[in-house]
Amino acid sequence: SKMSLLSLTFVLGILDGFNPCAMWILVILVSLLLPLQSRKKIALVGGTFIFAEGLLYFLFMTAWLNIFLAVEYGYLTKILIGSFGIIFGTLRLKEFFTWRPGVCKVVDSSSSQQKLVGKMERVLAATSWPAIIFGMIALAFAVNLIEFLCSAGFPVIYTRILALQNIGFVQHYLYLFLYILFYMIDDLIVFSFALFFL
After folding, report:
1. Angle at 176 between CA 174 and CA 178, to 5 degrees
2. What percent of the chain has pLDDT over 70?
3. How high is the pLDDT of residue 175?
């Protein structure tokens, strides 16, 4: 209640953006592209991955927002959302204390990592741009679909708070867009660094 909606959007978006699996994919992707020394290919492939990642997250959050706008905020809803927050927080604490270096939910073993890198290499080896772009979109959607299930707490809580605000339809979606922008900022920094400095 003491934070503005803009401040809350910034804080939760940044916290939610620390997505190690999506960042791992992006870093591997850029490292596979750098030897080509082609800003055009890095821009197209990395930009496609980042855009698809942001779009999928936006669609998920739009769905949550519309559910919360449609459902009356009663006692049962409070209990369900509160319980979800407690469960999400407990799982996060458990992961914090049991974390091991190199472990990612999307690629949890070296063989899975090698398979994923192999798929990325095959996508990048495609001769047609449509095949490369489609491959990057599929990769971004697959990674973020799994990762969203692991980090759904922030988007659910944020969209619930957003639904409770007495603001218009357009403002709801502008705040969602801002959240996604803050969520993507670490990926955008890494990608921009690779693109401009090769």
Report:
1. 70
2. 82
3. 94
